[in-house]
Structures are given as C-alpha cells and as structure tokens.
Amino acid sequence: MMKRDQCLKILARGIGEDDIVVPVYQAAFEWMLIRPSDLNYVTTGAMGQASSHALGLALAFPGRRVLVIDGDGSLLMNLGALITCAEQNPPNLYHFLGNNGVYEANGSHPLPGAGKTDFCALARAAGFPAAHRFADLGDFEAGLPAVLQAPGPVFVDLHVKQGESYPQDYTQLHSAERRARFKQAVNLTAAARP
To answer: Per CATH, is 2-182 categorized as 3.40.50.970?
Structure first.
C-alpha cells in the first residue's frame, strides 16, 4: 500500500501548468501544499460531488486536462456520477481515487465494503473505457505517463494509506479569495488559447 502524499507528489510531476485539479478532503490539504496553483478547484464541503464538479469543468474546458483526486468514501456518496461521466465521455477527464477503506475526514470510520469493493470494476461497468489499479509506488510512477496520455475518461484506483501529517487550513479551503483566484486563472488561461 502506498502513502497518499507520496502518490500526490508523483502525480504533481506528471501534470501540466494548465491542468485543472479537483482535490477533496484530506487529499486537498496535501495537494495545496504539494502543488500550489490557482487552478486547484477545492470542493471540500461537497462530499460526493468532486467528480460532478470535475465533469462540469472538463466539459467547459475541453482543451485542458481535468483531474479529480477523490476519496473512496466521497465516491460512494455519489456512485451515479461514474455513469454520468462515462455517458458524457470527456476525453480530458482523469478520476484518481484514494482508496483507503475509511471515511478519513470524519474520524476514519470504516467504509461499508472496505477491502471488498472493486472500484475499477464499478468504473468499467459504468462505461469508463479505461480503469487502472495501483498499490505499489514504483508501479504507479512507471504507469502514470501512459495513464495521462490516454484519452479519458480514465479511472485510477490508488490503494493508499495516510502519509505525512499536513496542516488542515480550512480557511484556505473555504476562502472566497481562493475561489476568485481560480475563476480568474481559469478565465485567463482559457482566453489565452487560440
């Protein structure tokens, strides 16, 4: 099993400056420090809605990649979003799932079906053309370039555990200024494209 922050550091090296990233809950705190960017769209407070937000962004900005860094508990609250994402078939959407078997943001209570649920099978059954599972950091690092070069929608199940402790700055997560910076950054980069 991999440490989530180590996975995020590898992911950060693989994405471009114009990519939009939608991280949720514990991963959001880590991601904001690992890869600070005004194009990080933070959705904490909307549990289960990360993939829906990412889908909307992928459809609105078809010329850039949109990556969602979801949690297994969050995804379980909105499994229907997998079907909607697959139906819309955005070639620029990449759904990374931090699969740790617990509702980490809510006290690490165990998930129903933890260790038994096959999220890749769920994604494929929903209509995702590609679904990958990684439980080894070296395999993830080696496989990530091919994952990010493939047309989406792509689903990636990362078997993770908590890594280093990161500060939980809720004022940044819920900041109106952060939302305004995202809006400005996404509009500026969209306007700069031919």
So the answer is: yes
pLDDT at 1: 81
10-residue averages of pLDDT along the chain (194 residues): 91 93 88 92 75 94 94 86 96 92 57 77 96 96 96 94 70 79 81 50
pLDDT score of 156:
97
Could you tell me where the DSSP H helices lie in 77-136? 80-88, 119-126
Please classify residue 109 by burial: count the beta carbons closer than 10 Å to its beta carbon, then call 0-12 exposed, 13-18 middle and 19+ buried: exposed
Q: What DSSP line would sit under 60-76, residue for residue?
A: H-TTS-EEEEEEHHHHH
How far is it, in rounded angstroms, from Cα 125 to Cα 170?
36
Q: What are the domain boundaries of the chain?
A: 2-182
* CB-based burial label for 22 (10 Å; 0-12, 13-18, 19+): buried
Tokens encoding 159: 């078997």
Separation between Cα atoms, residue 101 and residue 45, nearest integer Å: 20
Q: How far is it, in rounded angstroms, from Cα 71 to Cα 113?
A: 14
DSSP code for 40? B
